[in-house]
Amino acid sequence: MSSIAHANMFTRVVNRYWHIWSDVLGLIGSWANLFFSVLVWIVRSLIQRRARFGAHALAVQFVRVGIRSVGIVLLVSGCIGTILALQTAPSLEQFGQTDKVANLVGVAVFRELGPLIAAIVMTGFAGASIAAELGTMKVGEEIEALEAMALNPIRFLVMPRVIATMLSLVVLTVFSDICAVFFGGVVGVLVLDIPYEVYKINTLMQLCPVDFNTGLLKAAVFGTMLGLIACTNGLRVTGGAAGVGRATTNTVVQTTVAIVIADLLFSALFYSLGFN
């Protein structure tokens, strides 16, 4: 009797975790499928004149998801730069190395926090909006109407949004880096009494092009992931307004988790390649 109970328990545990992993693999598969569809349409738009989706659609999405996110990204980045300077100063002061705050802030922001902060802020600001918009179109049968008119939704709805999120996040990362380092410098000079020239020289000596380039690479990948996840959830909405709400929530949760995992994988890869 005991062996049967243990066997049943083992079966339930296996089934439970199998369903979880199958759902995760299904999500990754749907994102990959949408990515390749977008990639195909990008190539077609470059080589076929009639397949172009129009610069206006891209510009509208770039303004909507990128430019309108600048303010909140700068605010959060400035706070992060200030926090880094204030939190690292006491530990460095014990060793008489307070001026090295500049080194720590620069490396942390350009390698990790710049793209990560911009991506997470943009997830809540733009990712949820994209999912809700496409979900509302799905519920209102507007996407079916496009298909009835022989207009591909991937070409006209998904591709501009994915490209816009990718380009926007790269630009926002640059702003985030500059803002965080600037406010870290303000704290270093005005609060920690680090001479301005020392702070500037330490920052410039510590940073190198690979720090900036790896941050931009992360931003491009994070932006693409954000657009794909938001569009996938929006296009799969069912159940009316409640379905739109679920799609919005799923977009924020899935994108945040996916971006953090991707950042971990990037850090491990760069470490193994000796970029640290």
What does the secondary structure layout of this molecule look like, with pairings?
Elements: H1 2-47, H2 55-65, H3 70-93, H4 101-139, H5 142-148, H6 153-190, H7 196-206, H8 209-235, H9 240-272
Helix pairs in contact: 1-6, 1-8, 2-6, 3-4, 3-6, 4-6, 4-7, 4-8, 4-9, 6-8, 8-9
The number of helical runs is 9
- Could you name the ranges where pLDDT drops below 50 across 5 or more consecutive residues? none
Q: Main β-sheet: number of strands, strand sense, barrel status?
A: none
Strand content: under 5%
The quaternary state of the protein chains shown equals single chain
What structural category arises from helix and sheet content?
mainly alpha
Count of the separate structural domains: 1
- Total count of strands: 0
| End-to-end separation | 57 Å
Helix content: over 70%
Shape: globular
Nearest-integer average pLDDT: 85
Query: Cα-atom Rg, whole angstroms?
Result: 23 Å
Order of helices and strands: HHHHHHHHH
